[in-house]
Design a protein that fits this description.
By secondary structure, this protein is an alpha+beta fold. Helices cover 23% and strands 46% of the residues. Strands 1, 2, 3, 4, 5, 6, 7 and 8 form an 8-stranded antiparallel β-sheet that branches.
Length: 172
């Protein structure tokens, strides 16, 4: 007497096992994401990159710090830089950067500032090479983890221009 072969997918024990395993995996992943904190963003440096008749290009270096146990993929972002409370420059962050778990990485971004705004800042600082240059950088980074998504940042501070007289005289 031939027994019919078991029908695939009709075994209730197997279906229950698959259901429980998928539920545990889904719950486990969501629990992990609840512990993820956003990265912090800090301005490290500002350097001149190039210039034209209408714009001055600056290279801004940002440090991204990850306080989490897992690496964070960065998918891009934007920033606005304000210098000496008079000028604003905009730029885009590079994408496809990964911040290691409990680590940091530095990224460069290029921003363009209007030449007239740059001249105004330079004029205010040319006779004061020991002055402090006040800045504010704000914007967002897109984190490639759905729970975090777009993370906003806003940082302000001052850079010492001590020893930067040559840089100022050269056009920032």
């Amino acid at each position: 007497m031939d027994c019919p072969p078991p029908e695939h997918g009709k075994n209730p024990r197997r279906m229950l096992l698959v259901f429980l395993a998928s539920t545990l995996l889904t719950t486990g992943c969501s629990l992990l994401q609840d512990d993820i904190r956003p990265p912090t963003v800090n301005l490290v440096s500002i350097m001149p990159a190039a210039g034209s008749i209408t714009d001055l290009t600056l290279r801004c270096r940002l440090r991204l710090d990850n306080p989490n146990d897992v690496a964070l993929p960065i998918k891009g972002g934007e920033l606005q830089l304000t210098l000496a409370e008079r000028a604003a420059a905009r730029g885009r962050l590079v994408d496809n950067v990964t911040i290691p778990a409990h680590g940091s990485t530095e990224v460069d971004t290029v921003v363009a500032i209007n030449v007239m705004s740059a001249v105004s800042i330079i004029t205010g600082l040319i006779n004061r090479p020991d002055a402090m240059l006040r800045y504010e950088v704000e914007g967002y980074i897109d984190v490639g983890i759905s729970r975090l998504g777009r993370v906003r940042f806003d940082e302000s501070g001052e850079f010492s221009l001590s020893g930067a007289g040559d840089l100022i005289r050269a056009g920032l």
